[in-house]
Amino acid sequence: MSDAPAKKEERRKFQAIRGTRDLLPPETELWNRVEQTAHEVFATFGFGEIRVPIFEPTDLFAHAVGSETDIVSKEMFAFLDQPDLSDLENARNAVKAVNPGIGAQGKHELFELYVSNFITEVQKHVATQDINLPRRAQSDFDTIQDRFRDLLNLPDINDEDTNNRRSHLTFEIVIKVDLLRFGESISLRPEATASVCRAYIEHNMLQLPQPVKLYYVGPMFRRERPQKGRYRQFYQIGAEILGGTDAPAIDAEVIEMLMTYFDRVGLQGATLYINSIGHNADNCRRGYVANLKSALEKVKDKLGPDSQRRIDTNPLRVLDSKLESEQAIIATLPHIADHLCDECKTHYAEVKRQLQVRGVLYQENWRLVRGLDYYMRTTFEITAPGLGSQNAVCGGGRYDGLVELLGGPPTKGIGFAIGEDRLILSLQESGKGQAQQGRDVYIAWMGEKAYATAIRAAKDLRNAGFSVELPPLEQKFGKALGQADKLGAKYALILGDNEVSEGLWTLKTLSTGEQAKLPEPELLQFLRDQKPKSQ
Ligand code: HAM
């Protein structure tokens, strides 16, 4: 039995969280098509699918993406994965509850007992590996034990100095006990390159023939300000090539694959921008950054607060600024192309030549530095029309050194991630995103005998790959045909007692109103012949 209808406000209470959304049919058909095309195209380039976890240790992203980046410093959904250890929490609460305060002589013995108990509990759980103490927690725990030792070693006298010292130690112990956190900080993945590199190391993929080519499809999470094309849960289709050589042909081929894919899904008006940001050496990017920094210092007061801050934290990112008032100033800044070392210059020139050989059109953009720290040499981005200000539909680049940074061997790497939400938006805006709604066949049946036949017909048609709607209740034919129209069905199969006893079924083409009476096998064959080959 259902409860009494809830009040209006109560019924409206739950909504998708800001920046997240439900994807509904028929739009999800388009999502499936876009994903299916990725599976197909990427397979032709020798890529295999990898599925990595939705959450990972926060440190992984901080290390890989960079702790100063917007993604890590502002946008991660991080939480403490805290074990539920009630005995330990009781021990913690006991220490806090019996905090003796200043001069409360009588409570000290009890306090010491509880602190000692708390320390033993922590040690017990660390030994059984119920908890692990991250670096900061370990240092806090060491402090608790040190201060507790000092407290026990205090002389048993009641003068002012000793009492003050006791109060200080007690105070410090209570604070540290209160703040000590055992869990590990975990984050919803803001991107997947870090996870793929972690998996490459963890599964010793270095043993496989190199390079290893992997791709992924799935949701990512960033706490960004939601707007058109920017969500807090969004989807990426990404690919990574790890290991082997850093030959420019790899860079060009991965970009070729991307453009082939965009072509296959029907994305129109995509523009590929490329750049090289060199490598981290004095005679290359580091030298350029120093140069850029001093150029920026000179125009500092003409820049907005974000760019001013970035002069110190990450000067390259100033080039990314979209602020109208800064554009003229940025145009006067030195270009990285003039500061690349010989190897990076040659690499970049060869990437461009290889793109031309492959017939891939590109535009160079010296300001394309990307917002993640792991890039070096080739960077690229693709924009698409119909997206407003969030028009980057894909970003990627080379990241030799990332695997090593995460504890693996020196390894070459390059990859990209497509923003699937934006790709879908752009397809829809250009009219390429129309998903097919509706059923192939609506079965209008009347009568018990006809129903049994209808069930069998539905089964046969579905097995043959048709989408079929079989109404659960008997309807008058007029009503059934109206329903078939509403659902966008192409055909109505009309089954009444007459049809069943004659063995001739009626098929109505709803767009034209034409009707034909056919024996069952011929009708099935007729429908099969109408169905486009791709289905
Ligand atoms: P990214 O540029 O941060 O790169 O993201 C790639 C794409 O994801 C963007 O171009 C955009 O289309 C989409 N995207 C990013 N944030 C949002 C959002 N809040 N809402 C909707 N779409 C968004 C990376 O993530 C790198 N891991 C790419 C890569 C792979 N580099 C090498 N390998």
Query: Mean of residue pLDDT?
Result: 92
Main pleated sheet? 8 strands, mixed
Residue stretches low in confidence (pLDDT < 50, at least 5 long) are none
What is the strand content?
A: 15-25%
Radius of gyration: 33 Å
Describe the protein in words.
This protein has 535 residues and is an alpha+beta fold. It has 20 helices and 16 strands. It has an eight-stranded mixed β-sheet, with helices on both faces. Strands 13-12-14-15-16 form a five-stranded mixed β-sheet, sandwiched between helices. It has a three-stranded antiparallel β-sheet with strand order 2-4-3. It is extended, with a radius of gyration of 33 Å. The protein binds histidyl-adenosine monophosphate (HAM).
